[in-house]
Amino acid sequence: MISDLPWLDMARSGRLGERSVCFLSETDSTNDVALALAGDGALGGTVVVAERQSRGRGRLGREWLSPPGVGLYCSFILRPQLESADLPKLTLGAGLAASRAVETVTSLRPLLKWPNDLWLAGKKVGGILAEARLAPAGPLVILGIGVNVNTPQDAFPVELRDKVTSLAGHAGREFARSGLLGALGDELMAMVARAEREGFAGILADWRERDATRGRELEWLTQSGQVIRGLSLGPDEEGLLRIRDAAGTAHEVLSGDISLAGSGRE
Ligand code: BTN
Question: pTM of the predicted model, to two decimals?
Answer without folding.
Answer: 0.95
